[in-house]
From TrEMBL:
Protein name per Swiss-Prot or TrEMBL: Polypeptide N-acetylgalactosaminyltransferase like 5
Lineage: Eukaryota, Metazoa, Chordata, Craniata, Vertebrata
Domain Glycosyltransferase 2-like: 133-315
GO biological process: spermatid development
Species of the source: Microcebus murinus
Cofactor or coenzyme needed: Mn(2+)
The keyword Disulfide bond belongs to this UniProt entry's keyword annotation: yes
Length: 438
């Protein structure tokens, strides 16, 4: 009898945990909706951080005709009543991390609100900007979300700037990402290169494969569940054209995982704590002073993750990604530190907006080991004596293995990179150092 009771109790507790998570998301969404109805003020950086961490100029008439044109103006997404006990609804969240019922009803194309500041819409950019290779890697992505990412890029990117879209399938297992995807990509034949990995590489190495096949001047990395906004690419290319060692990120708007509502984010910058956990941080008011005001590029200590643009030759010059890292996790912090400490700059461009689905990652434990290993490689190569700050908080990892880092240490020497102390003093003085009280 005891052998039967214990598994039953486990199943009950697991079911309760899933229901509690979904109910919490539902209540959070209702609360956010009520708040927006009561106030027209922008959401705060803190509320954005909460939402994203739960996982994140041409007007339309001036944009060159895209390779694929929207045949009609998609209808604005209407709110739907959900049956939260629907197995399809629960199954979609467990499988993909967001509401697949709405994703399917939205389809491949839709209009999203232009969330740029009005000053951004008045900006004009040179017709002679660098060309871009947009790299999108995916593994078992929800079909409609992936196609919306592609359609938004093609429809809202001037054709003269878009060299190609490189789509890297990191050995997806789902049937709709095979022949069905090939069929739908026929419409993009002239613009898309589809690469299918024969074994799982992980996001980091998949991006390196995509970058190795790129021919554009600038590499633009996107996640596979994004929707770019109007005029998204030109601010990124214009900044890199002025300074090839400037790495730039769009401001990331939030696409709600339950309703797929597209919500504008405030102007924020990327930051992290001594656990190496990424977080959004407020931007000081003086950083938006001057004639450029809210359109001014914002210095960011780190990038959020996989949505950024970098000059292709500079990406190769500073060592691409750390090939010793597994799957994903921590690579955004490592690259950010390397950019700043080795002579580059990292900025967020408020006039570039990209929406991103804030997925509920219910399978995080599957990659926890890889994330810890990646953190350790970062710590031992880049933090110098400040690695003790990390181990004060993660003592269990102090003697864990992290592979051979000699190539990355040599890269740091060859590039003549500055110390982490310089980074703290110059780029991120807000990261306070704690004293070991033991």
């Amino acid at each position: 009898m005891r052998k039967v009771i214990i598994p039953c109790l486990f199943c009950v507790s697991l079911t309760f945990g899933i229901w509690a998570t979904l109910f919490s998301m539902y209540m959070h969404h209702n609360h956010a909706s009520d708040h927006q109805n009561r106030s027209q003020e922008p959401i705060s950086a803190w509320s954005l951080g909460q939402n994203v961490q739960q996982q994140i100029i041409h007007d339309s008439e001036q944009i060159s005709k895209p390779h694929v044109k929207v045949k009609h103006e998609p209808e604005e997404l209407q709110p739907l009543d959900f049956n939260y006990s629907d197995p399809e609804f629960l199954g979609g969240f467990l499988k993909y991390g967001f509401n697949t019922i709405i994703s399917r009803s939205v389809g491949f194309e839709r209009a999203v609100p232009d969330t740029r500041h009005k000053m951004c819409r008045q900006k004009h950019y040179s017709f002679h900007l660098p060309s871009a290779s947009v790299i999108i890697c995916f593994h078992n992505e929800e079909f409609n979300a992936l196609l919306r990412t592609l359609f938004s890029v093609v429809n809202l990117t001037p054709d003269n700037f878009l060299e190609e879209i490189i789509l890297v399938d990191d050995m997806s297992e789902f049937d709709d990402l095979k022949e069905k995807l090939d069929y739908h990509l026929e419409i993009f034949r002239e613009k898309i290169k589809l690469i299918r990995n024969k074994e799982r590489k992980g996001l980091i190495r998949a991006r390196l494969i995509g970058a190795s096949r790129a021919s554009g001047d600038v590499l633009v990395f996107l996640d596979s569940h994004c929707e770019v906004n109007r005029g998204w690419l030109e601010p990124l290319l214009a900044a890199i054209a002025k300074d090839p060692k400037m790495v730039v990120c769009p401001l990331i708007d939030v696409i709600d995982e339950t309703t797929l509502e597209y919500t504008p984010s405030p102007v924020v910058r990327g930051a992290f704590d001594w656990n190496l956990q990424f977080k959004w941080d407020n931007v000081f008011s003086y950083e938006m002073d001057g004639p450029d005001g809210p359109t001014k590029p914002i210095r960011s200590p780190v990038m959020a993750g996989g949505i950024f643009a970098i000059y292709r030759h500079y990406f190769n010059e500073i060592g691409q990604y750390d090939k010793g890292m597994d799957l994903w996790g921590g690579e955004n912090l490592e690259l950010s530190l390397r950019i700043w400490m080795c002579g580059g700059q990292l900025f967020i461009m408020p006039c570039s907006r990209v929406g991103h689905i804030s997925k509920q990652n219910l399978k995080y434990r599957e990659i926890l080991k890889a994330v810890q290993r990646n953190y350790l490689r970062l710590v031992h190569v880049w933090l110098d004596e400040y690695k003790d700050q990390f181990f004060l908080r993660r003592p269990s990892l102090k003697f864990s293995t992290y592979g051979n880092i000699s190539e990355r240490v040599e890269l740091r020497k060859r590039l003549g990179c500055k110390s982490f102390q310089w980074y703290l003093d110059t780029v991120f003085p807000e990261l306070e150092v704690s004293v070991d009280s033991r």
